[in-house]
Amino acid sequence: MNYFLLLLAAALSLLTACGTRPPGASSKASTSPTEPPAFGAIREDELRRDLFELASDSLRGRRAGREDELRAAVWVADRAREAGLEPAGADGTYFQFYPLRRVAVSADSRVQLNGQVIALWQDAWVTNPVEARLDGPVVWLNSMADTTKRDLRGKIVAMNLLPPTPLPAPKMSLWGFRYILSALGQQGAALRSKGVAGIVLVADATAEPQLGFVGFRYEDGTYNLPATTTPATPPAAPLLLVRQALGARLRSKATLKASLGVDSYIYPSINVIARAPGSDAALRAEHVLFSGHHDHDGVGPALQGDSIWNGADDNATVSVAMLAIGRAWKQNPGRRSALFVWHGAEERGLLGSRWYAEHPTVPKNSIVAVLNGDMIGRNAPDSAALLGSVPPHRNSTALVNMALQANNQFTKFKLDNTWDDPKHPEGWYFRSDHLPYVRAGIPGLFFTTLLHPDYHTPRDEASRIDITKLARMTRWMYATGWAVSNTPERPSVDPGAKLER
């Protein structure tokens, strides 16, 4: 924790002043509401340089709540300062710190099967952090039909993991992870409804190869904002997921003894906020907010010897795109100001954007639109998506029209609207940082080039990014923001707009 404190002190003391304007920069604004004047400031060489630094192994995947996320935030703030952007965070800095609460199974927790210690996080995973003491015989269930044949209240039950119904859609991202989560959710709820004291599920052939990947998340625990309140409910019975090799021992008059504890931690996370003032005295108090996240998954299970989950596409691409847009805005500002928010802890549940939407450093009603990006550097060169552009996710037709006009006029991507369908299995619209703003009643859009096989794996490396496409996506976001900035009337929220969930 001393390292955290030193890093925070360095961030607060060194990065409070706005940098000087880059040589040759101009404060003259274009008179056209739709012709962005500084496309030339969005340069592939600068995007490549920034991307390879932010997604490098030296930042170790930028996991939220760890010093690596804070180091990444300092890097972003320093680049924003070099671009001449003003600090717009707390207390005259580029930063907005907020607390994360992590709840995890304590290190001194123990599980024994037939008197032998079972290695947690190697052979058994506690899937819900909960204080519990178990000591007794195991009731083996051959199927869910067995739950109707006897009173299971207060018993420790074990059975094979059953496939969820329905299965995750074919080719859905993180398919094995979703398979296990769905199976545990369905089976666990059904068994808990019988009043059991504890549950042990034996991985099936589909789950077994995924245990390291999924188990890492269970070992890490859960994250949330401390202010989050939920109705008080009795603790859920603990659920252990174990390897197939333990199945035979559980079937044969087994006894289980478990002492499970819970630790709760408060970690610092951080949003980075910068501003480029607008040129119009009457409109510069209003803001076009460019949104992305600078965190990723950190160091996790190795894949082919690589344990650093660099998050180049997710979401270093947008982080460096926002720096490029900032340089363009400083070179030739729009009428309204541009606000840049690099959110932390997105991967832990949109926590940074949730915090900023509730605690903005500018008046909330001054935010006229949120242009969020997530993963903008992969897949076919001409493909992209604009989520929030069709109902039921669309909340501002005026904003959508500006984005579509910018694409038609400048970047000419072929847009895939199918991901806005509420029946799309990915639910992708609900998984990025525009969402808290839209829920707060602010017009918002989500720019993306969609998922790919390297999503949330160590293969998401800077070397795999299409830099030319990244620059093109950056120009689309910039051109859209330019139109929002210079159109006299701010985009409005459509009457009756609401999300389907």
Automatic annotation (TrEMBL):
What keywords sit in the KW lines? Signal
Q: Does the keyword Signal apply?
A: yes
Query: What's the name of the protein?
Result: Peptidase M28 domain-containing protein
Tell me what organism the protein belongs to.
Answer: Solirubrum puertoriconensis
Q: Which InterPro entries match?
A: M28_fam (IPR045175), Peptidase_M28 (IPR007484)
Which N-terminal residues, if any, form the signal peptide? 1-19
> What GO terms are given for molecular function?
metalloexopeptidase activity
Name the domain of life: Bacteria
Asked whether the UniProt record includes Signal among its keywords, one would answer yes
> Which GO terms of type biological process are on file?
proteolysis
